[in-house]
Design a protein that fits this description.
This protein is about 5% helix and about 35% strand. The chain has 2 helices and 20 strands. The N and C termini lie far apart (about 50 Å).
């Protein structure tokens, strides 16, 4: 088999630093890795790229990703050690560890963490501030940068592995921002451990696991979504997928994700904000391009 490029195909130098890590070229042919207890993994590119996740109650020690260059692995496998700390069910993305959320290595590009307006904001796309702290703060959010990407390319963010019990009478809440005249789409899935990613994303199976889906320009506002979780009888992950629109004016952002239960879900549903069914077109702010 030929080598496969994994990572971002494009990089931009900003303020003397590259905005994304360098990609790598992978190829199958390495010996089988040893089993990692108390973990699950996802394999890509004919078993040349493996991503490890620890089961609830265990902490990952080492690199979560191991890849093959055609003859040898780049590192040893990580370990999953017992931990009294529970997996975080809430995240505002203020810390670089993203509360255990990770990019899906099979997608086209990555979600990025930012605490200011997006580089394309002067063209009326993306937020200028996060949801947690608002206009006067400097909080972080996650977003997809559409500049340099191709229409329908995807970026996916994977949650930690959650215990199956959390799905019972539970809901997933998050805030999203979809501002831009050529906006793409945003999907959120509940992925059972037993379901491989390719099956989750297949057009015939996708609706079985979709919690949320929104397309098009929703205006320059943060909105929140509340979706009830399904009791799938299995540990699960939340998958957030951003789909690039037909131009660079399609930056999508998310913030303040959480799993809640019972009365908290009911309260969140009553307080949920949704985009208007028809956006009012306006010239305000659309012609002042500098």
């Amino acid at each position: 088999p030929r080598y496969t490029l994994v990572g971002n195909k494009y990089a931009t130098c900003r303020f003397g630093q590259w905005d994304v890590p360098a990609p790598v070229c992978v190829k199958s042919g390495c010996s089988q890795l040893e089993e990692v207890k108390n973990s699950v993994n996802m394999t890509y590119h004919n078993n040349a790229w493996i991503v490890f996740f620890c089961l609830p109650g265990h902490q990952l020690i080492g690199s979560p990703v191991v890849y093959c260059d055609g003859s040898k692995w780049n590192s040893t496998v990580p370990g999953c050690h017992d931990s009294s700390a529970k997996v975080s069910t809430e995240c505002d993305f203020e810390q670089p560890d993203l509360c255990g959320w990770k990019p899906d290595e099979l997608h086209d590009f990555d979600w990025r963490r930012l605490n200011k307006k997006t580089p394309s904001s002067f063209l009326q796309t993306g937020p200028t501030y996060d949801h947690t702290y608002g206009k006067n703060g400097s909080g972080y959010y996650m977003y997809i940068e559409s500049t340099g990407r191709i229409e329908n390319e995807t970026a996916r963010l994977l949650s930690p592995v959650y215990d199956a019990e959390l799905a019972k009478n539970g809901c997933f809440i998050f805030y999203y921002h979809m501002y831009g005249r050529s906006m793409g789409g945003l999907r959120v899935y509940q992925k059972p451990d037993r379901v491989p990613m390719y099956q989750l994303l297949s057009t015939t199976k996708r609706n079985n696991y979709t919690l949320f889906e929104q397309w098009g320009d929703q205006g320059n506002e943060w909105y929140n979504s509340v979706s009830m979780l399904s009791d799938v009888g299995d540990n699960f992950q939340i998958v957030i997928e951003g789909i690039r629109g037909n131009s660079f004016m399609s930056d999508i952002a998310i913030d303040d994700v959480s799993i809640q239960h019972g009365a908290n879900c009911t309260k969140a549903m009553l307080e949920a904000t949704t985009p208007p069914s028809v956006l009012q077109e306006s010239c305000v702010g659309r012609c002042n391009l500098y």
